Amino acid sequence: MSAKTAIIAGAGRLPATLAAALDQPLICALEGFAPEGLAVDMTFRVERLMPFLRALEDAGVDRVVFAGAVSRPRLDPALFDAATAQMVPRLLAAMQAGDDATLREVIALFAEAGFAIAGVADLAPDLVPGPGVLAGQPTAADQRDAARAEVIVAALGAVDVGQGAVVAQGLCLAVEALPGTDAMLDWVAVTARRPDPTGAKGVFYKAPKPGQDRRIDLPALGLATVQRAHAAGLAGIAFEAGGVILLDRAEMQAEAARLGLFLWARDSQADPQAGA
Fold first, then answer.
1. In 71-222, which ranges are continuous DSSP H helix?
2. What whole-number distance in Å separates Cα of residue 32 and Cα of residue 9?
3. Contact 238/266 with Cβ under 8 angstroms?
4. What is the pLDDT of residues 227-247, one digit of tens each?
5. What is the percentage of the chain residues whose pLDDT exceeds 70?
6. For 149-205, how does the pLDDT look when each residue is reduced to its tens digit (9 = 90+)?
7. What is the C-alpha to C-alpha distance for residues 179 and 194, in angstroms, rounded to an integer?
8. Measured distance CA(177)–CA(159) in Å, rounded
9. Beta strands 203-206 and 236-240, pairing class
10. What is the mean pLDDT of the chain?
11. In whole angstroms, what is the distance from residue 211 CA to residue 154 CA?
12. DSSP annotation string for 186-223
């Protein structure tokens, strides 16, 4: 008997993209974070997490997958039920420790309630490309910039700051922080200058944080990312193979080809330029 899956959905298009790849999933959304283009079957609040978990069990759900963007909700003490209130110390401690700790605690609570936790890559592997160049072709200089950006992103992730960076000619032009990828690329478009105007244009690199649980909060790229990278004057986009979701893979490839950008799912272990 196949597992009945619930998508714990946040904002954005990923939940709808994932739902299209699954067989009649139950769509559940945190209140205030409705997914785009997808009808919601059930909403819930963190303050009433335990009743929500029981409702999932009553609906026959035995597997959950998290998809979509959420931010830390403002908690209302008056709304806690007795069972969820017992979880408050765990939740608050995790939230104070950072986003990664919060996500790990959320996974733990769902697992303790008896649900299998699946990742997007487990259920829809086509959304998470393996190694390969999907459009264009990175030059040797682009490969070096991507390798440098990988080191920077790993350092950012280790302190739970961001999952992306822009590097040109070996220099870091920008890093991703709370405002996100779009804000970073828009900033590069209007402010960043290359040391050599005739040299390498630069690379945007994206990857999961080191050691993060890849069943939840994988970074995602979409068509707008390609367009913003072009507006920022970059040569292309590189990302960790098997670690980044492409929301519009075919459209991204076509747009990258049209704009003259490369799109590269990068395997650093196999890349001869990784240590350059």
1. 82-85, 88-97, 99-112, 120-123, 140-158, 181-191
2. 11
3. yes
4. 999 999 999 999 999 999 999
5. 95
6. 999 999 998 888 889 999 999 999 999 998 899 999 999 999 888 989 999 999 999
7. 23
8. 11
9. parallel
10. 90
11. 10
12. HHHHHH---SSTTS---EEEE-PPTT--TTS---EE-H
Interatomic CA distance for residues 235 and 260, integer angstroms: 8
pLDDT tens for 34-89 read 899 999 999 999 889 999 999 999 999 999 999 988 877 777 888 989 998 888 88
CB-count burial class (<10 Å; 0-12, 13-18, 19+) for 41: middle
| 211 Ramachandran zone, left/alpha/beta (phi>0; psi -120 to 50) | left
Q: Which amino acid is at 177?
A: A
- Of 102, 104, 99, the closest CA to residue 117 belongs to 104
3-state helix, strand, coil in the chain (%, to 5): 40, 20, 40
Q: Please provide the size of the chain in residues.
A: 276
Pick from 224, 255, 247: nearest CA to 35: 247
The tokens for 98 are 């950072």
- Quick check: 184 and 164 in contact, CB under 8 A? yes
State both tokens at 86: 């017992």
| Tokens of residue 105, six digits | 């605690």
pLDDT digits (tens, 9 = 90+) for 84-124: 888 888 877 877 776 667 778 888 999 999 999 999 999 99
Q: Two tokens at 47?
A: 């303050």
